[in-house]
From TrEMBL:
Lineage of source species: Bacteria, Pseudomonadati, Bacteroidota, Flavobacteriia, Flavobacteriales
PROSITE patterns: PROKAR_LIPOPROTEIN
Any one biological process term the GO annotation gives: signal transduction
Source domain of life: Bacteria
Annotated ranges, domain Tail specific protease: 83-298
GO cellular component: outer membrane-bounded periplasmic space
Name of the protein in question: Tail specific protease domain-containing protein
Any one GO MF annotation of this record: serine-type peptidase activity
Entry-linked CDD domains: Peptidase_S41 (cd06567)
Organism of derivation: Flavobacterium alkalisoli
Length: 315
């Protein structure tokens, strides 16, 4: 026991020396960043913050300015072990992060008596969100005029973005009420709600639409399709369908970042996108990793499996 105590004293002494030997602005920047992680991270109660602080200051011991700390900050964020948080230095230009072309997701073909809705990723402005909601609701309305045995909701390839337009766009299929939760490290839950064209976190209005849909499809048979590229907000939609009546999920486990992130700007203009909550379903079961489908099938059999289940349920 004494040995461990002496080791801790040595590490603490070394850390103090390190903090005293680096420039003040560097020390303050590291402290600012570590304090943010300690206060907000979804895994904050699982980390020894004294050891964490010592480790990060050691990593940055040769830093002469704030920019020199960036590798240590990236390392610190990785040590949170949530697989979702990331550090974006102010020196990273928009061209560095936005020149990659986004994947094109095409709709599948289903039988005439099976409705089909693909929920793609959602990235853009408020105006883009309105267009996103309108397009999906129009597709639902157009198909709802047919005599359908059920619906396919396709989340494959949906790597995330803004969950709220996604959720509001499928209100006719998922219904109103509490559909899931954000759960923080202290087991405090904040509800995801849809109420008549409006989406809320608890009682805080997040987004709304003026596109009204009269037909209630929330009890129809519905198969949710997922794959290994269903991630982040795409996983939130998969969670929202847990315990919906007459629903089952098919495909492969999701990517595994079912956590709620918030972006924080640091004093130098850099940002940390920080995972602060776990997604939880209507029964407050917490996730945080991959969402396992009810029926795990090979990727080329996913759509077929969903359709066959719908037909089976109609017998």
């Amino acid at each position: 026991m004494k040995i461990f105590y002496y080791i801790f004293l040595i590490l603490a002494f070394t850390s103090c020396q390190t903090q005293n030997s680096i420039p003040k602005e560097v020390s303050e920047y590291l402290t600012e960043t570590i304090n943010l992680l300690e206060q907000k991270s979804v895994n904050r109660n699982e980390i020894d913050w004294n050891e964490f602080r010592i480790d990060i200051f050691q990593k940055a011991r040769d830093a002469k300015n704030i920019q020199d700390t960036y590798p240590a900050i990236s390392y610190a964020v990785s040590k949170l072990n949530d697989s979702h948080s990331y550090f974006k230095p102010v020196t990273e230009t928009e061209a560095d992060s936005e020149n990659k072309p986004l994947p094109m997701l095409s709709d599948e073909v289903t039988p005439e008596d099976i409705g089909y809705i693909r929920i793609p990723f959602c990235i853009g402005t408020e105006s883009d969100n309105d267009v996103y909601i309108a397009k999906i609701r129009e597709k639902i309305e157009a198909q709802s005029n047919k005599e359908l045995k059920g619906w396919i909701l396709d989340l494959r390839g949906n790597f995330g973005g803004n969950m709220w337009p996604m959720l509001l766009s499928i209100e006719p299929l998922i219904g109103n009420g509490t559909l899931g939760y954000f759960a923080d490290a202290d087991n405090k839950y904040r509800a995801w709600k849809l109420i008549e064209g409006k989406a809320y976190i608890d009682d805080q209005l997040i987004i709304e639409t003026n596109i009204h849909f009269k037909k209630d499809l929330s009890n129809t048979f519905l198969a949710v399709l997922t794959d290994g590229q269903t991630a982040s907000s795409g996983e939130a939609i998969a969670v929202a369908f847990k315990f919906r009546e007459n629903s089952k999920s098919f495909g492969k486990p999701t990517f595994g970042v079912s956590t709620g992130c918030i972006s924080h700007e640091l004093s130098d203009g850099s940002t940390i996108n920080l995972a602060e909550t776990l997604f939880a379903d209507r029964k407050k079961t917490k996730y945080g990793s991959s969402i396992i489908p009810d029926f795990e099938v090979e990727e080329d059999q996913t759509l077929k499996a969903g359709i066959e289940w719908i037909y089976k349920m109609n017998k």
